[in-house]
Amino acid sequence: MGGGVLIVEDHGLLADSLVFALRAEGLDVDKVAPVTVDGILDEARRLSPTVVLLDLDLGGEIGSAVGLIWPLHELGAQVVMVTGITDRTRLAECLEAGATGLIDKGTSFDELVDSVREVAELGTIVSATQRDALLAELREQRKADQRRREPFERLTPREREVLAALMDGKSADVIAKESFVSLATVRSQIRTILVKLGVNSQLTAVALAQRNGWVLR
Question: How far apart are CA 41 and CA 37, in angstroms?
């Protein structure tokens, strides 16, 4: 196994169980508490693992572990995501970031051990077909997201401010007073917003923005 296995998992009981199961199979295993990104990377540098079993959602100040995949890969580790998440977009993002395997947390310990051995020997446990399918879905999802964002990107900075105010529940009259402009000006801006978003009412514009996760930047 070379440098062995490093487990990065925020659930202590699961981490201990994984350590016990893998050591029982004769594997060299360590674990690290995912408190900070720097702490995880420092431990990986010290141990030089061949395989890192990385929980996708580490909680705390780290949150998603996707940003850790490539730094761990650059340290020479094969990164295998161990997660209960089934969202194919998020799984594809892991592969895109450099993960060489995806293991469901519901997998038996026997299957997990086999997967660890396989990734250590072959460098991956994801078939080319599965990888290509997930990455293709990710590309299509991003195209769809871009199409949804395009109408909002056509708004001017002022129109974005007005839309954000409408989302906050402010009326045209209040927006005009707070902006020190005439009510007619704000109403004109709202009409332009509706045209650009392809909707017929302020309520529909607000609903569309909320549905697409639009926020003023």
Answer: 6
